[in-house]
Amino acid sequence: MSTSSSSTLEGIDADSASVLLNLIVGAGAGLLFWLLFEILRPLIPRIYYHRWFLSKYEDTVDWNGDRILCHDLPGRGVFGWIYPTYLASLRGFEETHSVDAVMFLRFLRSQAFMFVVLSLGTAVLLMPVYATGPNKNLPPDNPQYVTGINIVSIANLEPADNRLWATLIAEFFSALIVYYYTYVDYKAYVRLRRRYKTKCIPSNFSVVLTEIPEGSRNEKAITQYFDAISPGCVAEVQKVLNCGHAQAKIGKYMKEVKAVEIAEYKRENNKKIGPEGPTEKVKNKETGKKETVLSIPYHRGNCVKLERKILQEQEERDPAVMRTTLSAIVLFKSSVTCSVIQQLTIWKTTSTWRIEPGIDAGAVNWRKLYVSYKSRAPITVIGNIVIILITVFWGLVIVAIQALGNLENLANVPAFSFLNGVVDTWSPLLLAFVQGVLPPFILILLLRLIPFTMRQIILRQKIYSLARVECKLRNYYYVFLIFSNFIYVVISGTILQQLDVILANPSLLVQQLAIGIPQQAVFMMNYVLLNALFGYPLLVLDPGRVITRWIIFAFGGGKTERGLRFADRMFANFFFFKFYALSMLFTLLGTVYTTMTPLINVFTALYFIIGYFCCKFKIMYTSYHQYNPLKGYWQYGGIMHEGCFTGLLAAMLIHQVSMVIVFGIYQAAAQAIIEAVFIAMTAYYIGFVKNKYADLSQNGSLVEIIGSKETKDVQDSFFSKYTHPGLQPPAPGGPMINKVPLYKEAIKQCSFWGRKEARMFPSAAADAIAKQIGLEGAEMEEDKKLKGE
């Protein structure tokens, strides 16, 4: 945004007006979303308390095979969820949720504290100093003239101003604050990872073995391979077979099971259908003609046939059908032995075999274990090229968005003089809205398309762990956000603002780009503010999930218990990669401008405070981390925070490099040199922390594993965890219909779609909901019959 005052709103300069409008629009939209959420929260409990319902299913377990845990439901009063969310201690989240949840929420909380401290520090030290700058007293037609919120920014200082020493002191102060909070978080991460590595869970007893030589792809050879290190250490070898054919049959089998369930539902709920059930037309393979058959016997017969074929194929394991791959999963008898083997460097130096740490069974990316690392390079290169092209193309999108935010400046360029006829007819309010509110709002909406696209690209690369896929996706998305929301914004915004100057003298391009870093602070503030006030309420409301669920039911889905659970699960994942990357971006924006425009610290602190409460509520009640249809739920084990630490310090380096440039522009050579020393200090700090803690965070402490009270011997239940989905027996073929009706009033009050959906609540959940709304009486007659009363 420009620092000029050519556009005013009731005497307010353009930049201040845009921030004020974003505050009003963001707060208004956010309040609307909050009110909608408070209305829908008791009406659609299966969305907003999804985790609570999962905790009532006896057949639904987490990655350790334990029943899913959930906090008590909050009150139904308006904003009654805030206080229970605040009271919930993160100490218990490690057991009730995951290490991932603990570290992400700790990260949000520490960033909130960090920017609150930075807000107070810069408000006391910098803002009064900047406010005394001389540029606010210049004539309004002077290019260096500032007004409004820019008075308390570095833009109010003149070159070689002694006040820049205050900026340097604030730089040192902000660096220490960033070091402190990142160090505290990283130590907590290492502590949790060490404790995680001592737990008696399958991933701490297993390794993934890849690139196995052709002559050694059998249990005996693999066992002998590890016996050379520790005789008798192997408990089981799970060869990874290419079971795609069996998996396809299991998919057909499940399709038939669902058809039986739907037919059973129609028989029990449609009075027009007789006791034998519905009918349908199918093609007779012998005659080629369609004939009418009873749906239930027909699909049950198909289930029996497919089940027989699947079991036979799994028992025979014909090498022509289930091909042996170059990978295996090895389960050890002791977690101590497993830890030692994982840390041996011999695997990385002299062996052609590749040893990778064990992962959650649900996080195994089975198909990527079929291919060799030789085929990985071209797929990875192609994927990276596509992502680079998307990032480059996104620059055009940012140029268009920035052009919208600089209509007045463009109108001063002869080539775009036609815009004068448009801009002059607009009211100051409309102009401030179009230039100040719309650009960040459009950017927020368009960015929602990128994570899904990148995810599809990275999934096609050879990454055997879905957790590692998410980590890589977080890194790529963060780099993309740095380009799209910082570099492109600075470049395009500066060029568009100073286009007439650059066209008159192209040699000033580099200088204008350097000057443009502080000039884009207002756009960054607007973007942070809108995300805080608009983005997080939208996240909690989750309209996409609500609409998707409505579509599923509108088109006849969700009629059976399985279908209902599928509707519940749609978009219920909490994508840590996305929220880590976005939060790291806002840390970067706040850090870069923390001393240039101190007011941004207030908005960034607001972003993380609201984000902490919203994400904590989502994790506690609405979402359930990651879900793999083949293997159920899984977790990262906290590894997502490793890259977060690096990303935050990269943001600090970007800030310090930017400040060297800014000090150079302001002819403050001494400050620029000292700032360069700060860059070296940050680089040293990164190396110090990594050298001290990296190995511990990756492998844990062997001494702690040996001395842990946790069981160090492999459990019998672990042997089935890493069975390939194509080798698992098909699920029982009976229908999954909950025939226990609910209370009539509970049905009306607890379901957005009425009785059709609410009838399928689990009875225990219905009891709790009915009790909560004061309807424990008046059971339906059918309830009493089913209870034998």
Describe this structure in words.
The protein is mostly helical and 789 residues long. The protein is 60% helix and 6% strand. The chain has 33 helices and eight strands. It has a four-stranded antiparallel β-sheet with strand order 2-5-1-6. It has a two-stranded antiparallel sheet with strand order 3-4. Helix 17 (428-446) crosses helix 22 (521-541) and helix 19 packs across helix 21 (509-519). The chain is globular. Mean pLDDT is 79; it is low at 1-9 and 733-789.
Provide a short characterization of the protein structure.
This protein has 789 residues and is mainly alpha-helical. Mean pLDDT is 79; it is low at 1-9 and 733-789.
Bin the helical content. 55-70%
Q: What gap, in angstroms, lies between the N and C termini?
A: 73 Å
Q: Give me the number of helical elements.
A: 33
Write out the strand line-up for the largest beta sheet, numbering strands in chain order: 2-5-1-6
Largest sheet: 4 strands, antiparallel
Low-confidence stretches: 1-9, 733-789
Shape: globular
| Percentage of residues in DSSP E strands | 5-15%
Mean pLDDT: 79
Per DSSP E runs of 2 or more residues, the count of β-strands stands at 8
What structural class is derived from the secondary structure elements? mainly alpha
Radius of gyration, whole Å: 30 Å
